[in-house]
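anyone seen this seq b4? input:
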Amino acid sequence: MLSARVSALFIGAGFLAFGLAGPASSQSLTPFGNWGEPPERGAKSTASFLGGPAVGKALSQGGGRPSISPRTPQTVSFDNGMAAGSVVIDTAGRKLYYTLSSGSAYVYPIAVGKQGFAWSGVERVSRIEDWPDWIPPAEMRQRMPTLPVRMTGGLKNPLGAKAIYLGNTLYRIHGTNDSKSIGSASSSGCFRMHNSDVVHLADHVNASTTVYVMRRLPKGRVVPPGGYQEVKQAPQAPQQAPADAAAPPAEVPAAQPAEPQAPQNSVPPPAEAAPTTEQPAADQGI
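predicted toks r here
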């Protein structure tokens, strides 16, 4: 009887020691178990009883929406062959240029896609939105289940004060609630700007602005990617000839095609835009 009691005491002490002992390594387990990633910076722990992260809310409030004044950026020399009013993104240099002429541009510091999420190509601005809602893509919520299904626009929202959408993609040029990330490669494919900078840029672009995303700027003159040419100024139409004058040919010979009739500094129609040179990453978040 005594030996049985002693054995029970030893067994109970063993269970107690196991329950109080910490993990063998601080890197082997986290407060969120072995699933996914921790929530965004500043978020509270939502670890469940089983060790996995709790599911995020369907709707999260983004906070206040104060008035953000635009900040005029630095004007730099920028030798380029783009139409004035184009956007050129230098991914390696982590800068965004808005062309003012063939020799100058506004320059803004930006954050770009992290490794595996960077891309290059040509897109057009499709729309601009103030204090946009954020809808994390399904792939991102699978990795970070604590994210909400939707967050309303506001200071807490990672899209910041403005979002400039690029074509039919989920990529955006947008503000941020994490100014310290500007100048880094930390996004999921979007281009982050200081809120005051993106407000300034949004005042200058519109739904016809062309955006060139380049891995790095070429040496010398910056020109559109191969196969994508700016439309030149169309020649002026000749004045109407007198009634007795010989009529001009009905069609221009095939060997000498006529210049397209387009206004000066216009950009080519969407159908002529070159396809992106790299496939965008699947996760198109922030």
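The chain has three helices and 13 strands. The longest strand covers residues 121-130. kinda curious what u guys think
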